[in-house]
Amino acid sequence: MKERLASLILAFLACWPLVSFADQDLQARFEKSLKDVKSISNVEIDWLDTLWVNDPEALKSLNVKVFSRTFQYSYLMSGMKYRASCKLISGTQTNIAHSFESAFDGTTYSSYSGDNRYMIKSNMNSQSDASQSLYNPLVAPFMFLTRSSKGCESCFLRFTDIVSAALTNGLVMPVGQISDGLLEISLPGLSVGNQPITWKVIFDKTANAFTPQTIKYISPGGKSEFIARLLNYTNLGAYQFPARIEWAVSLYPPTSPPTLLETGTVTVISARIPDQIADSVFNLDSEEKVAAVVWDWDQKNFIKSAHENSNSSASLQARPNIYDESADGSKQIADALDIAKKEHKHILLQFGANWCGWCHKLHKLFETDKSIAEVLKSDYVVVMIDVNKGHNNDTDTKYGHPTRFGLPAIVVLDADGKQLVTQDTGKLEEGDHHSPDKVLVFLKEWAPKK
C-alpha cells in the first residue's frame, strides 16, 4: 500500500478545546477504550489477511497478470512481552516469503525468517517486523495513531504501543463535524511529496464506545487515498475491536469510477484472554537452534554463522560489506540514471543487507561468472540498495516493495527511470546457490535492445 503511514504527534494538541457534547462524548469514549485496553493482561488472537493488487503498473513490475496472497497472523501478549508469527496460506506466486516469527521476552527482541533461516537479536525494538501487521484487528480502532515519522516511515502501530502509556497519555480528540448521525474528526499526518496526509475518522454519533466505522487518509503527494471499514465489532473483556476489516487504496485525485490500486480484507479467526502464558513462549529458542545465521544487532557480530564455501564460520564473519549502510538510495539511483543515459544502459537495483547470505552469493556470482560479468558491464549500471532495519524504506516503497519477497530482490529500470520488472531472486535459485544459467537468461531478457 502506497504511503499509508503517518505521524501522530501533530495530530493532537493538548490545548484544543472540547466545544460540544459530541466531542466530549468522543473524548470519554477514547479514554475508556484506552482504559479497557490496558486492563487486558493477556491476549491471544489469530486472523487472516488477504491482499489483492489491482494497479497495472505494480502487476507489470511483478511480471504477473493477477496477484493475491493470504497470510495467517498470530499474536500472543502478556504485559509488554509478546510473540508474533506470520505464515503464507496461499499466493499467486509460490516464491512469496512463507514464514516469520518474532518475540520479546522482556529483555531481548528476536526475529526469525523461516525461509532463509536468519535470526536477528537486539535489545532495541526493531523498526519493522514482518511477523506483525499494520492490520492487527486489536490495533485497528487506533490505526490513525501510527508511530511513523520522517525518521521511521516503516514504523507502524503495535498493540503494545497502545498498552504503553507513553503513546497515548494526555492525547485529546480534535473538534469533530456532525452530519447525518455521524461524527467525523480530521487529523494531520506526515508529509509525502511535500504535501501533508490528512486522516479522517468517522464514528456513529450515538454509539457508546470508541468504535470507528471508517478510517481513511488522503495523500495528495502520494497520489493515493486509503479507506478502511471496520466491521462486526466484538470484544475481549470490555475492549471492543472489529472482527473484520475491508480496505482499499485508490488513485488520488479520485476518478469515476475509482481507480483501485490495492484491496484487502482482514478476518478474525479466534480471540481469547488466556489465564496464564508460560514465559518460555516469549523466546525463539527452538528457532535459534535451527537458524543458519544469528546476528547480534547490538554487537554487530554473528552469534551463529552459516557454512559457506568452507566448514569455518570465520569466512562469513570476515567477508566485506557489499552494501553502503549510510547511502541514500534515491541519490544512488539518480547518479546511476546519469550514467545509464550517457552509456545507453539499464539500471539493476539489488535490494539487500550485509547480513544476508544470499545477497553475498548473488553479488559474488555477478563478479566471478565471466558471462554474467560481461553482460552486466555491457548493459547495466548495478546499484546496491541497503534496506537493513528499514533503511531506504522510501526507495523500497517507490518501487512497489520488492523486498516483500525476501532478500535479495532485483528491480530493473530503463535509462529514463521507468520500472521494467521486479524479480524475486528465489526464482533464480538452484539448491544452495543461484543458477548461473537462470541469472544470465534474466539479464539478457531485460538488457537494452541494441
What does this structure look like?
- With 450 residues, this protein is α+β, with helices and mostly antiparallel strands.
- The chain has two domains: 9-281, outer membrane lipoprotein receptor (LolB), chain A; 329-445, Glutaredoxin (3-Layer(aba) Sandwich).
- It has eleven helices and 21 strands.
- The strands form three sheets. It has a 15-stranded mixed β-sheet. A four-stranded mixed β-sheet has the order 17-16-18-19. The chain has a two-stranded antiparallel ribbon with strand order 20-21.
- α8 crosses α9 and α9 (370-379) runs parallel beside α11.
- The protein is globular, with a radius of gyration of 23 Å.
In short:
This protein is of the alpha+beta class. It contains 11 helices and 21 strands. The N terminus is likely disordered.
* CATH architecture verdict of the largest domain: Clam
Number of domains: 2
Q: Using the coordinates above, name the CATH class of the largest domain.
A: Mainly Beta
Distance between the termini: 36 Å
Main beta sheet strand tally, sense and closure = 15 strands, mixed
Kindly report the average pLDDT value.
84
Give the strand order of the largest sheet, numbering strands 1, 2, ... along the chain.
7-8-9-10-11-12-13-1-2-3-4-5-6-14-15
**Topology-level CATH name of the largest domain:** outer membrane lipoprotein receptor (LolB), chain A
Choose one word for the global shape.
globular
The total count of strands amounts to 21
Total helix count? Answer: 11
Give the topology:
Blueprint: H1 21-38, E1 42-53, H2 56-62, E2 67-78, E3 81-91, E4 99-104, E5 109-113, E6 118-122, H3 159-163, H4 165-168, E7 177-179, E8 182-192, E9 195-204, E10 214-219, E11 224-236, E12 239-251, E13 260-272, H5 285-290, E14 293-296, E15 301-304, H6 314-318, H7 329-343, E16 346-352, H8 357-368, H9 370-379, E17 380-386, H10 393-398, E18 409-413, E19 419-424, E20 429-430, E21 433-434, H11 436-445
Parallel strand pairs: 6-14, 16-17
Antiparallel strand pairs: 1-2, 1-13, 2-3, 3-4, 4-5, 5-6, 7-8, 8-9, 9-10, 10-11, 11-12, 12-13, 14-15, 16-18, 18-19, 20-21
Helix pairs in contact: 8-9, 9-11
